[in-house]
What we know:
Elements: E1 12-14, E2 36-39, H1 43-46, E3 52-56, E4 63-67, E5 69-72, H2 74-81, E6 89-94, E7 97-102, E8 113-114, H3 172-187, H4 194-208, H5 211-216
Antiparallel strand pairs: 1-3, 2-5, 3-4, 6-7, 7-8
Amino acid sequence: MTLLPLQDPRIRGVEGPRYKVGPLCEAPGCNRPVDHAHHLWRRSYLTGDYWWVEVPEALGLRTITIGNVVGLCWRHHEDVTGTVGGHKAAFIWRDGVLLWTPVEPFINKSDQAVVPTRPFEGTPEAPVSEQERCPKCGRRKPRKKPEGLPKRDPRRKTRFVLMVPKDSEEDGHALVTSLLDDCAEKMGRSEKETYYTLVDALNWFLLNYDPAEDEAA
Length: 217
């Protein structure tokens, strides 16, 4: 689970337009293409999927609104979410500046680098235009990869096998495929990005599912 850049009662999610992240990872010094859109203040803390957040300014009681989503490559995304081997890095909001810092030592300012923040645009979210939808099926088209990205060597891959039921009562393969297709459509991903669709969906579940609410129901 992502470490919070700052805990403060003044922090709250702000409604606003989604924006494109990237094309390069925003971890200082990284030139890899973006793989994930990362929420600085996680959804469970803001109680919603907010792309903008109101945070304390450097001095006094004033607050400012900045973008809450940054683009990260898969490696730096794992560093800040602690997916593999625990947290290795974190974003910190300090004195009105967003910083990238190693977790150990967490307070070593010499290892911190400034990360640019996106100012609040304050315009309502625009609907998906007709040009972004398939004229035949009406589904949202997959996101296009930005041009001019640096080439990188192919990543090593392995096969993941999931056993599912296949009988007169249930077709597990068709069900899982349909769910992944629906998730990919909402995320704007293509059929070649099933892994990222699945990982993002599972991460969203972990961040938003509350067992207490389930038991209360």
